[in-house]
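[job 4471] stage=fold_predict status=RUNNING
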Amino acid sequence: MSLQEFIPTPRFDDYREKFRDFFHLERENGVVVAAAHTAGGPIQLSVQNHRALGQMLKTLGADPENEVLILTGTGEDFMMDSDPAGFELEDEDMPNWAYEYAYKDGRINVSSLINDLEIPTIGILNGSGFHSEIVLMCDITLCAEDATLFDLHYDIGSVPGDGIHSCFQELLGVKRAAYALLTGQAITAQLALDWGMVNEVLPRDKLLERALAIADHIMSQPRVTRRLTTQVVRRPWKKRIVDDLDGGFGIQMFGHVAKQKSIHRREAISETVRYVREGRRNNFDKADAGGQTDA
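[job 4471] inference complete, writing C-alpha cells
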C-alpha cells in the first residue's frame, strides 16, 4: 500500500456552483456544455471574467470525468460590449493590471484551452463578437449564420497581441490576418466558412443540437483514442502558442504601460463596434467598400 493517497480531483457539482456567475455548466455522459455569460446574457468583457475563463478551463481539464467540451456564449451576441466597471483595476494601477490581469491571465486562457484540456473541444460562435479566438481555437468550431467576427484592438488603441493575432495568423495566413488586424475587418459567417476559420454555419437555434451530435460521434470511440487524436489535431496550435503567444502579449502590454491610459472604457468599445452592427466592413469607411470579398 502506498504511503500517500491521491489528491482528490475536482467535483463537477462543486465547480459548477463556483463558476455559476461566469458560466452555465452542464454535463451529461461526459460531455460538458460551458455557456459563458454576464448576468445571464451575452459576455461583457471584464478582468473578472477574463480570469475566470482560464480558471474554468484548468478545472475542467483536471476532472477525469469530462470527455468533450462544448464552449459557447449566451444570447444573440458572443461579445460586443464590456462591463461598465470591468476595468477599474486598469485605471487604478496600470502596471499591476498589465501583468497580473492581462499578461498572466490572458496567456493562461489561451494556453489552457490548447494545453490543459486532454479532451476534444467544440467551440460555438453563437453571435457577433470580438475575442472570438476562444472558440475559433477549439478543435471544431460552429458559427451562427448571422454572426460577424472581428478584432477591435487596433481601433481602440491597443496592439492586437493577446492571442487573437495567433488565431488569425494561423487560420488566415499572413496577408489576410494583417488586413483583419489592422482594419478591424468585419468577417461574416459565410466568409469565415469560406476561409476555413469555422467548420459549419447554422441557424443559431440549431448550433447546440449540432454540437451535441458531433460530440456523440466523438464519444463513439474509446477514451484513449479520443484523447490521443486530440493531441494530434492540436499540434499546430501548440507550436503557434509556443512560438509567439508570449511575445505578442509582451508587446501589447508594453504598449499599454507606455501609454499609461486605459483603452477599455465601455463607451469607446461601444462606439468602435457600431460598424459591425451596421453591417459595414470596417470602422473607417462610411459605406461598405466593395463588400465581403477575399482581401
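[job 4471] summary: The chain is about 45% helix and 15% strand.
[job 4471] exit 0
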